[in-house]
Amino acid sequence: MESKASAGRVVVGVDGSPSSQSALRWAMRHAGLIGGVVEAVGAWELPGMRGWSAPAVDADLDEEVARSQFVEELRSVVGDEPSVEVRERLVRGNPTEVLLAAAEGAEVLVVGSRGRGGFARALLGSVSQQCAQHATCPVVIVRPDSKSGVDPTEAA
To answer: Cα Rg for the chain, rounded, in angstroms?
Structure first.
């Protein structure tokens, strides 16, 4: 039998995009309804890691910047005193792989429909699409309403 923290663990991908912010708000409300916890997961990669040349960057500095932006993003969405427990997790690696690993045994994985990269006209980002296809738990894909500016997760 799973513990309450495991059974009610809501994993959410956080990347600073508008749909990621909506996903985080959705995850917070869902965790509140089920008496669970939110595990906010961010992933960062070094620039150039997928190219032919070695990265000309300082990995420690990049991690500090990523952590600062990650924490700032969480605070701007959930505030200083969130309504549910929020566990912060920033991992170096491919975002899809990081989220799929984090979602093992979770109640649900929540991701935004569009992240920071890719083509604006794509319906789903590559990370959300890969998570939907390969996660071992249910996946919720959240998008903001770009026409009205209203977050659809807040609609009654």
So the answer is: 16
Residues ≥6 apart with Cβ < 8 Å to 35: 4, 8
Q: Are 44 and 66 in contact (CB under 8 A)?
A: yes
From CA 12, how far away is CA 140, in angstroms rounded?
9
Q: Over the stretch 38-78, which tens digit does the pLDDT of each residue have?
A: 999 999 876 555 544 555 555 565 788 889 999 999 999 99
> Residue 2, class by beta-carbon neighbours within 10 Å (0-12 exposed, 13-18 middle, 19+ buried)?
exposed
Question: Max alpha carbon distance in the chain (Å)?
Answer: 51
- Residue 34: pLDDT band (50, 70, 90) is very high
Residue 49's SS3 state is coil
Contact assessment for residue 115 and residue 127, using Cβ atoms and an 8 Å cutoff:
yes
CA angle 122, 135, 72 (to 5 degrees): 70
95-102 and 126-134 helices cross at what angle (nearest 10)? 30
